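Can anyone check this?
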Amino acid sequence: MNDITFSTSGFTLIAGPCVIEGKEITRSIASELKEITCRYGIPFIFKASYRKANRSRYDSFTGIGDERGLEILAGIREDMGIPIVTDIHLPEEAGKAASYGIDMLQIPAFLCRQTDLIEAAARTGRWINIKKGQFLSPAAMRFAAEKAVHAGNTKIALTERGTQFGYGDLIVDFRGITVMRGLGYPVILDITHSLQAPNQASGVTGGHPEMISVIARAGIAAGADAIFMETHPDPSSALSDGANMLQLSKVEPLLRQLIAIREAVNGVI
């Protein structure tokens, strides 16, 4: 497996497109993100879903095929030496994704209480990123993590991705970063999904991408161990979640801000 590290002094970047749209664009995004993070010495994990199962509408784009998507991720991992994280939705998908060398298996927020899914992911021996459900308190994530530990795996990260606020909005309670870090696991802040506007009348999730940098800066100041973002060269043409992605050209300027904030925070503690 490629190395996955969470630094106590800096931060890790987890980033990539929402879903694999094709081999060329996925590899291009991975290559550019690797180049940027190497320039600043930021640990990097490439994220892309090989299949999206939690769609609002039946006709929403879900992927280009499981095997083809996993092969693309495996190629990026091998050729570029980048650790990979991708979502799984059913217990039987854990072993399949692991067989392609996936370094970290991600449990979607809606599925964070699915015991069989967490245990199956844990038994692969891979890192597990459990995203906090919009309906859960940060403290309740203790029980999700305990399921993985009970199955024999302590390589666990927890992700804050917002709490449901009414029918069509999310809010981020930054106290949750401290609460979940207190459980003994690295905490990731998802700065793009936290800005979703779900349950739109069109059946397509909206978002507030203009607030991405605000959430990111606050999260780094609050002590997040990693920042998770979905990014695309042209979010308006992305086949999934384009409404809350960060344009790829804006990643580097944002990272420079976050590095400065983390250095400032470290300097006064």
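Reply from J.R.: I decoded it. The longest helix spans residues 23-40.
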